[in-house]
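Technical note accompanying the year-one report. For the benefit of new consortium partners, we illustrate the data format agreed upon in the data management plan: each record pairs a sequence with a structure-token string. No post-processing was applied to the example shown here.
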Amino acid sequence: MHRPLGITVSRHIMDLQRLHPGATGELSGLLSELIVAAKTISAEVNMAGLADILGMSGKTNIQGEEVQKLDEFANNTIKNRMARCGYICVMTSEEEDDIIPVAEGYEGKYTLAFDPLDGSSNIDFNVSIGTIFSIHLRKSDLGEPPVGRRSTDTEEDWQPAYGKPGSAEDLLQKGNKQVAAGYIIYGSSTMLVFTTGEGVQGFTLDPSVGEFFLSHPDMRIPEKSRYFSVNEGNYSYWDENMCRYIDYLKEQDEAGGRPYSSRYIGSLVSDFHRNLIAGGIFLYPKDNKNPAKPSGKLRLLYEAVPLAFIVEQAGGRAVTGDGRNIMEIEPQELHQRVPLIIGCRHDVDEAEDFLNGKK
């Protein structure tokens, strides 16, 4: 069967690098290594029902949630792939209690925060799931420049590339300091969506050749939509302003483009991906359902911050609903939670007005 030629993700990354004469190629290399991990996870997800990898692993993560077998596979795949890539100094995962150091001698100048398999509670039901990632430049001193290795060097002669491992301080940075962020969604097709601060590009994996091809160039979220994504099962736990806003969206008002239609998958990366393409607003506000999580459910570093970078680059907004912009929040801990309202600019503006009592 004839397949049209297209721009591969590798070619796109190299083209981005050429636009910046001072680029070292390290960010390009980092993204390329992540893409290899994504292909590995995608292959396993597609085989899950046949490979005895569905169901629970019997472990519990730092969030107190039961870990799926695929969660564990995805987490280990990314950790093992990135630990010796030479481009990062430290990692953190939604599935791990503490920071994840890289292999000694492979310390680079970037950091990586990732949710290995967002939406994993839907794994057993064949609902789309995904990997989310966020990349920052390290804050701490890089250390000595790289030391080249000649073929005659012995193990005793070999010195670490940088010698200074990263720390939690390197990971706890605002979203507006990100150099790249993205997600890989594993559904009817596997898609990679990412930004390096110069727009948002979407690539679809062609499994027959094992390569991502540009399928959604220069992605833009509509200014306004007619869709909302929220778990209305939590309605009785919301504050009055949030309830008023959802009631408002469901009122009949032809001139105002209401009622909105509800589209809620229950997998953040899937809900976000749909809204990015078709337009919509996703809301997971704070509630009084769980006193132990008064600040919301979603994680700042692994979910809110990378998706906020993407949506802003696509023309949308991401806020908490209590006067804070997601990209401006100074993280205090690795597993910090926040409320999240993200999507079309007009809709987020309107939601913010309701939640702040202005409407």
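Partners are asked to follow this layout when depositing records. Helices lie at 9-18, 26-46, 69-82, 168-171, 240-249, 268-278, 300-313, 345-355.
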